[in-house]
Structures are given as structure tokens and as C-alpha cells.
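Continuing the series of single-chain predictions for the mutant panel. This is the parent chain; the variants come on the following pages.
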Amino acid sequence: MNEKNKIIIEAQPFYIAAQSLPEQGRFVFAYTVTISNKGDIPAKLLTRHWLITDANGKIQEVRGEGVVGEQPYLKPGDSFRYTSGAIIETSVGTMEGSYTLRSDEGEDFDATIPKFTLSIPRTLH
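Parent structure:
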């Protein structure tokens, strides 16, 4: 990745016990994502692609336009933060993926969402 299109993505997951039904294999997680433009050129987020994997190896693939109904436009130095959620069938899982963005130069590029772990408190040490 060149420095002109440099998007940094950080995710902070948390467990939503009130919406989960562990005895029925329903574990609800929320996650807050921060997307930061550390490059030299403004860019607009076009699409998202997620791979959500539970401890049984079941993979949910999610593709769509934008994030939380928006397609944020990030100038150099700007950040966009949003919170969304995922439901899996096990107490531990992972999420990873990418966003496709378009720079002001008209170039489409992908920004990797690093893998992060979904787990209920006190499951992993």
C-alpha cells in the first residue's frame, strides 16, 4: 500500500449479555470501528466485506454498501467511528474483512480490517 491511500482501521468488540441467549446458541456482540485516513488524499468509503467466524468454523460473509447506512468521506487526518453488531452461535469468534474506498484521484483501493476476537467476558485469558 502506498502512503497516499493509507487507511488505518481499529475495532473494539464487546459482548451484549442482555440480548444474548447462550443456552440457545445466540451470542450478541457489538463492535466500534474507527476508520482513520492517514494518507495524503481524501477518500470515500464505498463498500464493506466482513467474514465472521464462530468457534465451530461457521462463516458468515457480509457484503454491502457503506457502513451503518453511510459512505463516509475522509479527508487526510479525518476519522469516522461507528458501532454495529454481529450474532454468532458460540461464545468465541472472530471478525475480519475490508472496506473498498475511492480516492479523489478516482482510484479504488481496499483497506484491510485486521482480525479481532469476539468473546464473552472471562472466556479467553
